[in-house]
Design a protein that fits this description.
7-stranded parallel beta sheet; single chain; Rossmann fold; alpha/beta; about 15% strand; about 40% helix
């Protein structure tokens, strides 16, 4: 493991615990000698994670679409910065640069990034670990939705193991480091 992509909110959220755990995650990434890949903003949980990586002596790599965001401010102190043509290019570059992916709390953009990279894992497009830092049970409703998808026959139970979950940054990073891709049953239950 060399680089971890972190998907996170461009807002800090209502609980100070969100920011505290984002900073712990950033420091943990740097202390392991890994690099951060993320969306390039200096705001919200994105900025908190990047700042913690940099303050701990680590490297932070940002990827942001050219001219797409007026409100999202580019972080000026990053180790490397890439401009992408659009959101598709941003996500592709982040995936290319990264050896694993972690989602912190966030909104639509964070959910979309998480589910796209998780879907790619399910389809075998990549073999990299995908994790959720479930701060203050933020993602518990989403995990319940995944269980509902399994219960309702839209996803095999073995596919839940593609997603690593923990409430503590260091434990999640340990899981990411030890990840072995699970043996998956056939995604399409109408096939033999």
């Amino acid at each position: 493991m060399k680089r971890i992509c972190v998907y996170a909110g461009s807002n800090p959220g209502t609980s100070p615990t969100f920011t505290e755990k984002a900073k712990e995650l950033g420091a943990g990434i740097a202390h392991r000698g890994w690099e951060l890949v993320y969306g390039g903003s200096n705001m919200g949980l994105m900025g908190s994670t990047a700042n913690a990586v940099l303050e701990a002596g680590g490297k932070a790599i940002g990827v942001m679409p050219r001219g797409l965001f007026r409100g999202e401010m580019r972080h000026s102190g990053l180790t490397e910065f890439y401009e992408a043509e659009n959101m598709h290019g941003r996500k592709a570059k982040m995936a290319e640069l990264s050896d694993g992916f972690i989602a912190l709390p966030g909104g639509y953009g964070t959910f979309e990034e998480l589910f796209e990279i998780l879907c790619w894992a399910q389809l075998g497009i990549h073999q990299k670990p995908v994790g959720i830092l479930n701060i203050d049970d933020y993602y518990t409703p989403l995990l319940q939705l995944i269980e509902q998808a399994i219960f309702s026959g839209f996803m095999p139970a073995t596919h839940r193991d593609l997603l690593l979950v923990d409430q503590e940054p260091d434990r999640l990073l340990d899981k990411m480091e030890a990840y072995k891709r699970p043996v998956l049953s056939n995604k399409w239950n109408e096939e033999d």
